[in-house]
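Chain and backbone:
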Amino acid sequence: MTSFAVHPVDLEPSLVAESTYATRRRRARIDVAAVVSVMICLLYLIPGTLIVPNMSFAGRPALLVAFALFAWWALTRLNRRLVMTGPQPIRWAAFLYLAGTMGSYLAGLLRGLPGLEANAQNFAMLQLFQFLGVALVVADGIPNWERLKGVLRVFVWCAGYMAAIGIIQSTTQINIAEYLVVPGLEVKGGIIGLSQRGSGEFFRVASTAAHYIEFSALMAVALPFAIHFARYGALKRHRYFAGLVAVLTAVAVPMSISRTGVVALGAVLAVMMIAWSWRVRYNMLLLGTVVIAGMMVVRPGLLGTVSYMFTGAEEDPSISGRTDDYELVGHWFSQRPWLGRGPNTLVPELYDGLVLDNQWLYTLVTGGLIGVIVFALMHLTAIVLAAIAWRRSQIEEDRHLCAALISAQVVSLLVAATVDSLWFTTFALTVFLLMGVCGAVWRLTHPARTVRTSTVVSYNDQPERDAAHEAERVADAVIRIAPVYRRR
């Protein structure tokens, strides 16, 4: 099943002035999609612990590009000739998230902070601008479906590269990431190595991610998008390549030997099953059976090791270690229930290496109830926008893409319950990128043409702008009733 060569919405004109329209398919050498694609490559192709010299982890090249995107978006809001017209719910969700985090930041300052906690707070705010910048610029700046699909194709290809590196690490037990150090960057905290797990025959791998759990979660998130392009790619070679990436990402999840990855993979498939027809479900079940059988032949015992992580969870000290921290969470929460201690102020160095491994609990302690609410609101807004776009879509390809976007947000909600997800910048930036895509598909499927084809304002006369928008509304009405008069 292939996609349309040209999406119908891409052919609609975009109003830029009175009686003046621009094409939706106009090309620019450097636009939002191009810069975001560069950011994705930097995020996935080089190890997650490489930074610009003399900087913190916020100095990853991809994160610096993300901060530049935030600055780009913010500067456009200062000039009405540059600002994007039309509503965008992602903006309101991002504003509430920023306001809630800023409230927690001020609460931390008011209680007085030691040096490590103060630095951690500042680092958290810097990362927040980077994450929100990606979401906002993608939601507002992707001009049409063609460019949106281009960004997602880059994401799928880079995920396939990460999966291939992880599979090679697992089968050869050679840490290839050590050979991917880019000249001019420095390693912060070392390249994560292979970690023995189980009987000693198998090793956990992280590929270019910063942690094994992060790697497995990223592969689960990328899988539905690889399946999407395998089904709807415009060219046959693109469909074949995306199908190969889908297999690689599915195989890479158990090779990371992570409970989180398996749960995330199950959640992805559960959401996608809703969007698939019975024929597609049967084909996916058959393909999954073949992949599992192949893994049992090539890597005997691997699936048994993965299953034991669930059946033997009662004997796993990492599980009991997490539950033992619940008493401390209740103590800290009772002290500052609304705004918390301040973002990122639960520094392990000050609390005997304490790591909650639960982003929801961590946010409850550091951001309070308000922090949890605004964090959940970002995910729920993205899910609702993708669901609305799914309902509006008239093309099966678009509905399938919306289902993939919903699955990514569901996975993010689950992963946050098993690990401090915002600490892992590759995963966090990917999730916020896909939040922005949810806002973009909501805009591109909007019933109002002035929202669907919104562009920057290039004139100053507000009455002329209102009159032009009213003319477009009348034109839409004429187009809708014309078939009725023809039948008469």
Q: What stands out?
A: The first strand starts at residue 13 and ends at 17.
